[in-house]
Design brief:
Elements: E1 12-18, H1 22-33, E2 40-42, E3 49-56, H2 61-79, E4 83-90, H3 91-95, H4 100-103, E5 109-110, H5 117-122, E6 143-147, E7 149-150, H6 161-165, E8 169-170, H7 173-185, E9 190-194, H8 203-206, H9 211-219, E10 226-229, H10 240-247, E11 251-256, H11 264-270, H12 276-289, E12 294-301, H13 308-321, E13 325-330, H14 338-342, H15 349-374, E14 381-387, E15 390-395, E16 406-409
Parallel strand pairs: 1-2, 1-3, 3-4, 4-5, 6-9, 9-10, 10-11, 11-12, 12-13
Antiparallel strand pairs: 7-8, 14-15, 15-16
Helix pairs in contact: 9-10, 13-15
């Protein structure tokens, strides 16, 4: 054990590792806010700890491997006496709860991804409803992710999220406004709206898509200056959201909308419930109704059944749409999904690699051209950090961690508090 008996009377030393997406980060922040400050101190990687807490990801193969490696590294540290108790929760353990405890018995406690009260009790605290809107921020203090719903009712054929996270469940609007108010009081100026599908928000609670109404209410929170939308879904897209983006100065003209493909055949195999024509029409509406909007998307190459003609159509669409931000990912077969169970993974790995690289080669050229057009413009930015002789900033068109940065020469100026 890392500390003497006498030191046990002091605060428990807790180290936290969160893997995967920003939705996992929000879960960790809510959990940490439940822990009494007089009983715990959160420490960094270099420290010996009483408790190591790992929030895992189980979405795709690479993420699962990263989570397993992190757990095994913690097991080694525990064997060396540098970790007292090892607690694992999140998507990986939710997905493989029946297998992991036997495979890695050195872990003291395993928990899933849907109920964190048992994790809090395992750490020696008691869950508090009064603290449910509180967050222990792990992001820089000026921005925070706001998770507006949990789970997903979509059944995209390649995706394991619905049986990991369960059905879609919106967070009541008043709870989100309260959470945003508390975040603003801590100095948060930018809210990044996240969920498995943000545009589905409200259907279960209000029997209507209520994202636009939520955006309006959040924009009325004093101190919040930017609101950014991530993880929107193209099918039945609520167009009143575009009105908020066009008319509400606090809603960034930025939309993260994973489209995944443009070929009707591939979209049908993916169970995306849209067509290529619908997708093109939606992108056109966004460009027309929100002048200057920046669109971020992702494409999956190598899904079962994707032939040369389908890929060529995707290439032409990327050239035609000229997305400001785009990422390409190779299809990863996930056990339990429709694609894994009912379709044949018939695209060779070398072909997947080529297609992903070709998409990104084309997109890199488009991004460079788009960036050159910004030269000479004056843009309002938010400062994220200082690195050496430069301040690192972002405009409303750039999301933290995934998008571009604007470097500002320091030259003796103090731009951060």
């Amino acid at each position: 054990m890392p500390h003497s008996t006498s030191s046990r009377k002091m605060k428990k030393r807790l180290r936290v590792l969160t893997l995967g997406c920003s939705k996992n980060s929000v879960d960790t922040e809510h959990l940490l806010a439940q822990l009494p400050a007089d009983a715990f101190v959160i420490v960094g990687d270099e420290d010996d700890v009483d408790i190591q807490l790992i929030n895992t990801c189980g979405f795709i193969g690479d993420a699962k491997e990263e989570s397993i490696n992190a757990i095994l590294q913690a097991v080694e540290l525990k064997a060396e006496g540098r970790i007292g108790e090892l607690v694992v929760f999140g998507c990986l353990s939710q997905r493989y709860m029946s297998e992991l405890p036997a495979l890695i018995p050195e872990v003291d406690a395993w928990f899933g991804a849907r109920d964190f009260d048992p994790v809090i009790r395992e750490l020696g605290a008691e869950p508090s409803a009064e603290k449910s809107a509180d967050r222990y921020l792990t992001t820089p203090s000026h921005y925070a992710y706001l998770k507006i719903s949990e789970g997903c009712d979509r059944r995209c054929s390649y995706c394991a999220i619905p049986f990991i996270r369960g059905q879609h469940k919106s967070v009541p609007m008043e709870d989100l406004v309260e959470e945003a108010t508390r975040l603003a009081a801590k100095g948060v100026r930018e809210l990044i709206i996240i969920a498995q599908d943000t545009t589905y928000y409200g259907l279960d609670l209000y029997r209507r898509r209520a994202l636009a109404e939520l955006l309006q209410k959040l924009s009325e929170v004093e101190g919040i200056e930017w609101i950014r939308i991530h993880y929107s879904y193209p099918a039945a897209f609520p167009e009143d959201v575009l009105d908020q983006m066009a008319d509400n100065p606090k809603v960034c003209r930025y939309m993260d909308i994973p489209l995944q493909h443009i070929s009707d055949k591939v979209l049908d195999n993916m169970h995306r419930h849209v067509t290529g024509a619908w997708t093109r029409e939606l992108i056109g509406k966004m460009r027309e109704r929100v002048p200057g909007v920046v669109l971020r998307t992702t494409m999956i190459v190598g899904h079962p059944g994707e032939g040369k003609r389908d890929f060529n159509e995707l290439i032409e669409f990327v050239r035609e749409a000229r997305f400001e931000r785009l990422g390409a990912f190779k299809y990863s077969e996930e056990e339990g999904t429709f694609s894994a169970e009912k379709l044949t993974d018939n695209v060779p790995e070398r072909v997947k690699n080529y297609r992903a690289e070709e998409i990104m080669r084309i997109q890199n050229a488009i991004s460079l051209e788009n960036n050159r057009k910004r030269i000479g413009n004056i843009e309002r930015v938010i400062i994220d950090s200082r690195q050496g002789d430069y301040y690192v900033a972002r405009s409303q068109y750039d999301s933290p961690e995934v998008d571009e940065e604007i470097l500002i020469e320091a030259n003796g100026k103090r731009l951060l508090r």
